[in-house]
Design brief:
- The protein has about 300 residues and is an alpha/beta fold.
- It is built from ten helices and ten strands.
- It has helices at about 15-25, 35-45, 65-75, 90-100, 110-135, 145-165, 180-185, 185-205, 230-245, 275-290, and strands at about 5-10, 30-35, 50-55, 80-85, 105, 170-175, 210-215, 220-225, 260-270, 300.
- Helix 7 (about 180-185) packs across helix 8.
- The chain is elongated, with a radius of gyration of 25 Å.
- The two termini are about 40 Å apart.
């Protein structure tokens, strides 16, 4: 959020209202507009979702209440705050809007300073909520995604791959003899070593859909949607080679004089209605095989 203006979607069938609100807000925010309910629902589901929606109640075909209800029923848009902007100022109208999940109400004719103040307050709250959600998904030591975020992504990508009958690949990597490394060099350098692994991992997972995460301890994963076994194994080998090329000393390793990783790489095309446990088990089995065969290698199928 720090590198872009917050995005506000203004929804109103009256061009004058849209112009006034857009003019009042565009200095501080990116403003998108919709002149009907269907377009508002469509824009709210775009990849770049609004941080706040200013929503007129009285519109033809689909009124603001129905738009609000649809957005709050959708997992993708339910957390977007909505402020109703309307001439309907009866207590019952406001109560209905709040019951549907609206964050606030602004009555027409509106005063621009009040609009700016209320929008500003809700944007600040939204950004704080987004930041907390982001921090909850990150590993505190390495700064990459944590196990919780990986589990969520795996479930989502598994279901998507099942719908599209597309391959889903998983790379699982483990730092070789990491306990011995910690015992010899201390936990400070051990933490630094894991941070190095995370940095190399994120350089390997470069596509927008790829997800690199710390799975636990010295174990890391990369989730690769729509990636074939050959493509995934090439990425896995690139990661293994980059760790070896780092030449981080490890005198107590019986595999190398430097820190190395063992890697398992599995690919599946999910069956509809199945779960991703099999993919995890396959990657874990191949990781174990890589270790059993001497470490510092990639095993895939």
């Amino acid at each position: 959020m720090a590198d872009r203006k917050p995005l506000i979607l203004v929804v109103d069938d009256n061009p004058v209202n849209i112009h006034v609100l857009a003019q009042a807000l565009q200095a501080e925010y990116t403003v998108k507009i919709a002149t009907d309910g269907l377009k508002a629902v469509e824009l709210a589901h775009h990849p770049e979702k609004p941080d706040l929606i200013l929503l007129d109640v009285m519109m033809p075909e689909m009124d603001g209440y129905e738009v609000c209800q649809r957005l709050k029923e959708s997992k993708a848009t339910k957390n977007i705050p909505i402020i109703f902007v309307t001439a309907k100022n009866e207590v019952g109208d406001e109560e209905h809007g709040f019951n549907l999940g609206a964050a606030d109400y602004i009555t027409k004719p509106f005063a621009i300073p009040i609009v700016r103040a209320r929008v500003g307050n809700h944007i600040k709250l939204k950004l704080k909520t987004d930041l907390l959600e982001s921090l909850a998904s990150l590993d505190g030591l390495t700064g990459i995604y944590n196990r919780r975020r990986f589990d969520e992504a795996l479930d989502k990508e598994w279901r998507r791959a099942a719908r599209n009958q597309a391959p889903l690949s998983l790379i699982m990597a483990d730092v070789d003899y990491f306990k011995l490394y910690n015992d010899l060099y201390g936990h400070g350098l051990g933490d630094e070593c894991l941070q190095n692994m995370a940095a190399l991992l994120t350089r390997t997972a470069t596509r927008p859909g790829d997800l690199a995460a710390r799975y636990g301890g010295e174990e890391f994963v990369i989730l690769l949607p729509e990636t074939s076994p050959s493509g995934a194994s090439k990425l896995a080998e690139r990661f293994r080679a980059s760790v070896e090329a780092l030449k981080r000393p490890h005198k107590d390793s019986s595999t190398s004089d430097y820190v190395t990783v063992s890697v398992g790489c599995a690919t599946m095309i999910p069956l509809p209605g199945s779960d991703p446990a099999g993919l995890l088990q396959a990657a874990d089995r191949l990781l174990y095989q890589a270790k059993h065969e001497g470490r510092n290698r990639v095993k895939y199928e």
